[in-house]
């Protein structure tokens, strides 16, 4: 299965938030797009965004949620993606 990753198109996609509440607010639009099938995966430098995104997507019964970390140059990035649970 090929994962359709969100393509960062602005510097806001690389924001790091100060609180979990801010990350939760940001997560809302991401998870809605993933649920709608716009894309399957999201990469972020903020572990808080990855945490709340993975946690919220795990409650959707049609998804299996996967996470990983990767280095992008000298920056650690967090990946969250979903696959169908069928």
Q: What low-confidence regions span 5 or more consecutive residues with pLDDT below 50?
A: none
Task: Please give the domain count.
Answer: 1
Bin the strand percentage.
25-35%
Order of helices and strands: HEHEE
Class by helix and strand content?
A: alpha+beta
CATH architecture, please?
A: 2-Layer Sandwich
Give the CA-based shape: globular
Overview of the molecule:
By secondary structure, this protein is an alpha+beta fold. It has a single domain, classed as Ribosomal Protein S8, Chain: A, domain 1. Helices cover 33% and strands 28% of the residues. It has 2 helices and 3 strands; from the N terminus they run H-E-H-E-E. Strands 1-3-2 form a 3-stranded antiparallel beta sheet, covered by helices on one side. Strand 2 and strand 3 (75-84) form a beta hairpin. Helix 1 (20-36) crosses helix 2 (47-57). The longest helix has 17 residues, at 20-36.
Summarize the helices and strands and which ones pair or pack:
Layout: H1 20-36, E1 41-44, H2 47-57, E2 63-72, E3 75-84
Antiparallel strand pairs: 1-3, 2-3
Helix pairs in contact: 1-2
